[in-house]
Amino acid sequence: MERARAMKMNIRKGDTVKVISGRDKGKQGEALSVSPTSGKVVVHQVNMARKAVKPDPKKNPQGGIIEMPAPIQASNLKLVCPRCEKPTKVKRSKDAEGKSSRKCGKCGELIDG
Ligand SMILES: [Zn+2]
Q1: 61 in the same domain as 6
Q2: 90 and 53 in one domain?
Q3: Which one of 22, 61, 68, 111 counts the least CB within 10 Å of its CB?
């Protein structure tokens, strides 16, 4: 099997993202996990899928079917700027030390340090 190459992701865990295409278009939620190797993001309450689970005495003694969010392509998502609250294209810039940072494409807010 070919080894997957990690992608540059503009979305990070904990970000608020908006779905821009697909079944859940228009939904907004928190990025729960990000996988740079697959380029996919799991978003809270988005792309819900049914999954069969084995009985677990601690969490789910009955077992059965649970619903959980399935990963979706990062290209179907846009980051929601914490300042202007609009879905935006992330601008990347590097400072003098070569440290990369993300900025809102709309209002220019620095999204993280
Ligand atoms: Zn903004």
Answers
A1: yes
A2: no
A3: 61
Residue 1 pLDDT > 60: no
Q: From ligand 1's centre to the CA of 55, what distance in Å?
A: 45
Question: 110 is written with which tokens?
Answer: 């620095």
Place of tokens 């080894």: 3
Cα(22) to centroid(ligand 1), Å: 24
CA 48 – CA 30 distance, rounded (Å): 14
33: tokens are: 């996990």
Residue tagged 């990963």 (tokens): 71
Residues in a beta bridge with 54: none
Residues 18 and 8 in one domain: yes
14 CA distance to ligand 1 middle (Å) = 17
